[in-house]
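To: structure subgroup
Subject: Chain for Friday's discussion

All,

I'm putting the inputs and outputs inline so they're searchable in the archive.
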Amino acid sequence: MADIPRITSDRLILRPHDAGDLDACLAMWSDERVVRFIGGKPADLAETWARMLRYRGLWQLLGYGYWLVAERQTGAFVGEVGFADFKRGLGADDLYLPEAGWAISPDQAGRGYATEAAETAHRWFDTTHGGGSFCMISDGNAASVRVAEKLGYGFSHTLSYKGEPTGIFLRRGAPAT
């Protein structure tokens, strides 16, 4: 089994999900403000649980995955960040790179947590895996575009994903050390 690292930044802890996180994750993934640009449909309990299990499985199969993000000082739930291969079937546009993603609970938004968590995750990824990554951002999600640009992602192209226009952003990673 792959160990899931626990990493920290000035204000945040990135740690593995555990069963006790289900309620906080459900609150975030069932909030229409969160899913507006991520699938468009609030998740129910079973879908949120399956997401948490999928996150653990990514680590086991790929050596990277998603972390739960919490405030260092209080332990309060902030959101999730990480890397995946979701086998999206993008066809000729499939990038064969790890896909980065982040989601922040609406009550934690506007504090710079998305950027801080994603920068922390990318530093870890660059050190351990190197190479590049991509992210998919739905049209109109200006907040995620700003985070992606701060991380060094550049717009590549737009494709249709599940019938919706979606931007593909690419980032060159540092070689693994």
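Points worth raising on Friday:
The first strand starts at residue 7 and ends at 8.
The first helix runs from residue 22 to 29.

D.
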